[in-house]
Design brief:
The structure holds two protein chains of two kinds.
Chain A lengths: L6 H10 L3 H15 L3 E6 L9 H4 E4 L13 H12 L5 E3 L14 E8 L5 E8 L6 H21 L11 H11 L4 H8 L3 H15 L4 H10 L5
Helix pairs in contact in A: 1-2, 2-5, 6-8, 6-9, 7-8, 8-9
Chain B lengths: L10 E7 L3 H11 L6 E7 L2 H10 L4 E5 L8 H10 L6 E5 L17 E4 L5 H11 L5 H4 L3
Parallel strand pairs in B: 1-2, 1-3, 3-4, 4-5
Classes of the chains: A alpha+beta, B alpha/beta.
Chain lengths: 226, 143
């Protein structure tokens, strides 16, 4: 059984995409279609004084996943963020950025930045080993991946200045305010602990909260929960 | 995370619930190509048998076929697994995930959906990386 990588099929999957695993599936389809080895998407928002790449990486097709980026040192992380933040248009670079070399063993990389309506940015890094690519091939890939990045930005709530909260995010914040931990909330709501943590983390990002206590305080202050 | 404290990989225990035993063979074959994780799969062909397994031991992840007779689809089966107090990740695997009702998979307690055509070493690696990592630590460590 082979995967259907036609325009129609990929567009349909993109329109149906809800969570990050759905977007991984779409990015993976596009990567297969254009023959890229691997990819990673970084969100250049909420970057703290000491950036942690694993925290700002939304998707990664690495052997050990995005969590393995925690091993990247502070200086290398800063250098990567500087390089990505300075991008104004897609760029083909002769090798992957230094910080990503252990994760992307290719000769070349393509960097695609996308600015959301809020001014916040996503950057896609594609690992490329094809000997030669026509301009049309690169243009096609950039166009398709930009569409996917735009949809991902909407799904991540980066399309509006005032963050929108999903019903589940509010429920999870309410239970957090009641003193429940993730596994207790998972049992109450009939979800996995993983998904509860994802809701907490997305609510924290939307409110720019540093920890769960800060999340609850801010959620009450802005009226998301009472 | 998959890495153990002394460098040993933790085995990821997966429960596959599918009424077609061939799927077990296929997934076992695909898992052989996943070199990033050690994975052990238990197979059962009915939801009731799956619930019995869950009562006996713990699993890191459940992969469940969408159509499991006598149940209609995941909207009936996944809530029953959650009712059994399972809070690990659940993925729905189906030949066709394009029906509209799949859009509500999160509401019924599932974590992801994937077509059987998509399940290969690369997808499995992503799923194991993503859903077996400890994503509770970032943020709380800032307290």
């Amino acid at each position: 059984m082979t995967l259907d990588l036609t325009d129609e099929s990929i567009e349909a999957e993109l329109n149906r995409a809800i969570n990050r695993t759905d977007f991984f599936r779409v990015f993976r389809m596009l990567a297969d279609r254009y023959g890229f080895l691997s990819f990673a998407v970084f969100e250049l928002t909420g970057v703290k004084v000491e950036p942690r790449l694993d925290r700002i990486c939304l998707l990664a097709d690495f052997p050990r996943g995005r969590g393995s980026l925690a091993a990247v040192g502070s200086e290398e992380s800063q250098a990567l963020l500087g390089q990505l933040a300075g991008l104004r248009r897609p760029a083909i670079v002769p090798e992957p950025p230094e910080a990503l070399k252990p994760y992307m063993s290719s000769h070349r990389a393509i960097l695609i930045p996308m600015t959301a309506p809020t001014g916040e940015r996503l950057v896609l890094v594609l690992s490329d080993e094809k000997e030669a690519r026509t301009e049309a091939d690169v243009a096609g890939a950039v166009f398709d991946f930009l569409q996917a990045l735009q949809k991902l930005a909407v799904a991540e709530g980066l399309d509006a200045d005032a963050p929108r909260f999903r019903r589940r995010e509010i429920e999870v914040v309410e239970w957090t305010a009641e003193g429940k931990n993730s596994s207790e909330i998972a049992l109450i709501l009939g979800l996995s602990e993983y998904t509860v943590n994802e809701y907490i983390s997305s609510a924290m990002r939307k409110l720019d909260a540093l920890n769960r206590i800060h999340l609850v305080t801010k959620a009450i202050r802005v009226g998301i929960i009472s | 995370m998959a890495g153990g404290v002394d460098g040993q990989q933790k085995v990821i225990d997966v429960l596959l619930i599918d009424d077609d035993p061939t799927e077990f063979e296929i997934i076992q074959y695909k898992l052989k190509k996943v070199d990033s994780h050690d994975v052990a799969v238990d197979f059962v062909s009915t939801l009731d048998a799956g619930l019995e397994k869950l009562a006996e031991r713990s699993y890191d992840m459940i992969l469940i076929d969408n159509m499991l007779p006598p149940h209609n689809d995941f909207r009936q089966t996944v809530p029953l697994i959650r009712k059994a107090r399972y809070i690990g990740p659940i993925g729905i695997i189906s030949s066709d995930i394009s029906s509209n009702y799949f859009q509500s998979f999160g509401e019924f307690g599932a974590d992801f959906r994937m077509s059987k055509q998509e399940v290969d070493a690369r997808s499995l690696r992503y799923i194991f990386n993503e859903f077996t990592r400890d994503n509770s630590l970032p943020f709380d460590e800032d307290i």
